[in-house]
Hints:
Low-confidence stretches: none
Shape: extended
Oligomer: single chain
Number of helices: 5
Number of strands: 3
Amino acid sequence: MNYQPSSRSRISKSKLKLKPYLRHLIFLLRRYPRQFLFVIFAVLTLDAIFISHSGPSPSNANPSPTTPPQHAPAAAHKERIFIASLHWNGEALIRAHWGPALLDLVHYFGADNIYISILEGGSFDDAKGALRELDLELEGLGVGHSVVLDEKTHQDEVEREPAEGEDGWVVTSRGRR
């Protein structure tokens, strides 16, 4: 008894019509797979070399840290900007990127146009130290700001037993909070 696949399991060539150039491309890929991979690899390598040697364009280049930032247009000085941030275990990020970027914003928009609110809680690294240094710098620039350094950790908050009727806690059907 010869097995004949059902008409559903076979895809007829009439249903699968490809453009002639796609059929030719598939033929070449099947016939010369190594050569095709080599060409792709060569193109990507040359592209990476070109990008790495071209350097940044003037439109997206970052100014050097020693270059004083330009001031915002006069229209931008009419609006006040509020920056709020929450930090936990972010010392390296604060020192290397976030702090300098924040100070650049202060210089750009002006100390009178920005208010900064920072909250840090329960970090295991020296994020508090980095934020204390940033606090002193903001104070020296005359920027309106508040920096709250909380000593409670997430574990402290979860393990704490709330007082009876304390807001902010959900009571489960088993009477647990």
